[in-house]
Task: inverse folding
């Protein structure tokens, strides 16, 4: 499906990149103490459409966060100065104030910084000569611990790597490159990220992760790799209860200072749950009945242990209770103290029961996202179902005023695609 660019500065077709959000299945908090964690990709993704221009400018359009910036090459810091930065986040000091003037303080500022950092690092003047437009849309809920930032950075880095002529295919080598540059983007945005989010968004499937080691893909999933095993069906439930990851991590540390042996025993128990789950997922049958029974127990146990660490919340317990009443195990995911919970939906689950759980959680004021965990990672395509991306976007239903008239700029049309149309750009499982 993927066609290499004829040359970085030559004519090239519109293309689309995409990358998934993530959910931590097991091991949050314990991972801070060197224990194993397991994360998986969501089927909610960020999508970037990239089109060529003829005026030597680069436009970044992010309708979700009201960013629309058009930059000449000269507004970027030079590559040498970016390479000398002690930390990618220091790029702000290299940018002319007018570049950031319209975006002070908001998420737009971070996006512009990442864009400038990655462009300066990757895209040279020759590749920039004719210019390009990039619009990124995301179906990953923002600020919910579901890896929306990493999905954005992976989609963005992939697009810029391709424009620069450094990436022609999303193979093992390509993914390594994308992961490394997306991590830099995460550093610009978050300072000292662990790297798990960009690794999941890049590789997809399930990953085993321990601090200080490279995340290890568990070659098992629907990620388009060697196996066509199905992913895990889940409901991700956002309680909308605000939480601070930093404060929750600090709280666990304080508890451990007071009750070191007890907390270390809890961490060890979590580690054994994560390790066993990772082994099962690596065996390649996440959805088989035996694995599912095991994972169900692991999910319940892990939630209880996280509550013992003091990171539970009544809203999260409510999710566990509502789901548990219909034989669906649930646990908090991420930092806890609010935020999201995941509900494992067994293969034999009664659809009525799934609808009831969803209905009760929505009635409680929570958002409920049905998802399949363990699907494809980063993707880059020139065609959608055999149709060139540009033609597909032109033909897709749009929310532009006046309807689908085929006249508007491709980027504007992409920005106005309804979410359901956007979701159709997802790579097909197992391809
Ligand atoms: O808040 P989230 O979903 O990004 O997850 C935080 C996970 C912790 O283990 C609590 C912290 C960490 O840095 O791993």
Result:
């Amino acid at each position: 499906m993927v066609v290499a660019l004829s040359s970085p500065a030559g004519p090239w077709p519109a293309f689309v990149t995409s990358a998934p959000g993530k959910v931590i299945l097991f091991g949050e908090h314990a991972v801070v103490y060197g224990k194993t964690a397991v994360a998986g990709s969501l089927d909610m993704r960020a999508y970037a459409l990239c089109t060529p221009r003829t005026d030597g400018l680069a436009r970044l359009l992010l309708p979700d966060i009201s960013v629309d910036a058009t930059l000449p090459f000269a507004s970027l810091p030079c590559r040498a100065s970016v390479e000398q930065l002690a930390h990618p986040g220091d790029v702000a000091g290299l940018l002319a104030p007018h570049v950031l003037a319209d975006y002070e303080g908001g998420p737009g500022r971070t996006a512009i910084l990442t864009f400038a950092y990655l462009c300066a690092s990757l895209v040279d003047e020759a590749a920039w000569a004719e210019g390009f437009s990039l619009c990124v849309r995301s179906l990953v809920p923002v600020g919910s611990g579901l890896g929306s930032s990493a999905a954005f950075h992976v989609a963005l880095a992939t697009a810029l790597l391709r424009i620069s002529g450094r990436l022609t295919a999303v193979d093992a080598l390509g993914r390594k490159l994308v992961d490394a540059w997306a991590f830099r983007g995460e550093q610009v945005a978050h300072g000292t990220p662990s790297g798990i989010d960009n690794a999941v968004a890049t590789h997809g499937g399930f990953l085993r992760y321990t601090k200080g080691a490279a995340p290890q893909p568990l070659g098992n999933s629907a990620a388009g790799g060697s196996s066509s095993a199905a992913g895990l069906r889940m409901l991700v439930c956002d309680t909308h209860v605000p939480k601070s990851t930093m404060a929750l991590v600090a709280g666990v540390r304080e508890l451990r200072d007071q009750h070191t042996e007890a907390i270390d025993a809890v961490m060890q128990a979590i580690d054994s749950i994560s390790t066993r789950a990772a082994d099962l997922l690596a065996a390649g049958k996440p959805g088989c009945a035996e694995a599912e029974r095991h994972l169900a127990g692991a999910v319940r146990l892990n939630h209880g242990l996280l509550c013992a660490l003091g990171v539970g919340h009544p809203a999260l317990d409510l999710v566990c209770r509502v789901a548990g009443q219909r034989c669906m195990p649930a646990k908090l995911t991420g930092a806890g103290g609010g935020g999201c919970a995941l509900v494992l939906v067994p293969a034999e689950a009664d659809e009525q029961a799934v609808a009831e759980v969803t209905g009760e959680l929505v009635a409680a004021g929570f958002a409920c996202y049905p998802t399949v965990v363990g699907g494809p990672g980063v993707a880059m395509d020139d065609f959608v179902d055999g149709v060139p991306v540009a033609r597909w976007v032109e033909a897709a239903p749009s929310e532009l005023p006046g309807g689908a008239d085929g006249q508007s700029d491709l980027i504007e049309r992409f920005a106005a695609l309804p979410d359901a149309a956007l979701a159709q750009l997802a790579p097909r499982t197992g391809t």
